[in-house]
Amino acid sequence: MNTYKKRILIDLDGVLNEYGKGKYDENFIPEIKIGAVEFLEKISKLGELYLFTTRNHILATKWLISNKIDFYFKDITNVKIPAFVHIDDRAICFMGDYQKILEDVIEFKAYWK
After folding, report:
1. pTM for this structure?
2. 3-class SS at 70?
């Protein structure tokens, strides 16, 4: 019996919250995105969730608790830990083609811009 659970690293800003819709404030985390709770409920069945953020750990923890989603996460990290997949609003997936990835970087825009 295989008890290994896939790690899924999920970025906070821009994935779970309404980041990009106002002035950045390191002491304030924007409101949770519509659909985020339902997303976490479904994806948590696929593996262990880790919250990735460079924000203050205590502030991020309080945000998770106030939004009643803290129990979905095994841990909070500011380190890109080994994971099955990383979910981030500022990521580009490398598919083996260096020319294509260069073009993707040059043309990149966050979805909320």
Report:
1. 0.89
2. helix
Tokens standing for 53?
């953020």
Token pair of 55 as six digits: 């924000």
Determine the Cα–Cα distance for residues 23 and 7; give it in Å rounded to an integer. 32
Please write the tens of the pLDDT for every residue from 65-88.
999 999 999 999 999 999 999 999
Question: CA-CA distance, 43 to 37, in Å (whole number)?
Answer: 10
CA distance 29 to 53: 11
Domain segments of the chain as ranges: 7-107
Q: Give the whole-angstrom CA distance, residue 111 versus residue 113.
A: 6
Tell me how far apart the alpha carbons of residues 69 and 74 are, in angstroms, rounded to a whole number. Answer: 11
Cα–Cα distance, 38 to 45 (Å, whole number): 12
CATH number of 7-107: 3.40.50.1000
Helix (H) or strand (E) holding 75: strand 73-77
